[in-house]
């Protein structure tokens, strides 16, 4: 196994959620640390850990970002990080895996599953070997204590429950 660190300059942790039951709001986190200890050609048995800085949330709207940092949602002051620690990786195809682990948000830990695809390996212009992975999963925000919402006059709610999480990761040897 080889140890890799995620290159944040060439990676993204994103999310989307239904807004007013008709559209989607997208966002990302700009600051995070992640390590992967694995044989990149076979992720089974890999050690994967993520630590995301909640304060780095960005939805391209400062007021919304501040509200998401508040106690109504992530409560970044009391719970400054979102973490994920993989505990089961099942190979589903040649370069496809199902990754399950413990996701912690706002002090609540629940299992979460991501579909992950190995994108391949290359050498960057500086001679450093890099690997890439893509992933996506979905969690219900209420399972993590993110329950704030507002009822709409037309019926329904302002913020959907299901959060789609997307990962585009490039990693360098540690």
UniProtKB/TrEMBL annotation:
InterPro entries associated with the record: Lipid/polyisoprenoid-bd_YceI, TTHA0802/YceI-like_sf
UniProt protein name: YceI family protein
Domain Lipid/polyisoprenoid-binding YceI-like per the UniProt entry, residue ranges: 3-172
Transmembrane segments: none
Gene3D superfamilies recorded: Lipid/polyisoprenoid-binding, YceI-like
Family, as annotated: Belongs to the UPF0312 family.
Native species: Planomicrobium okeanokoites (Planococcus okeanokoites)
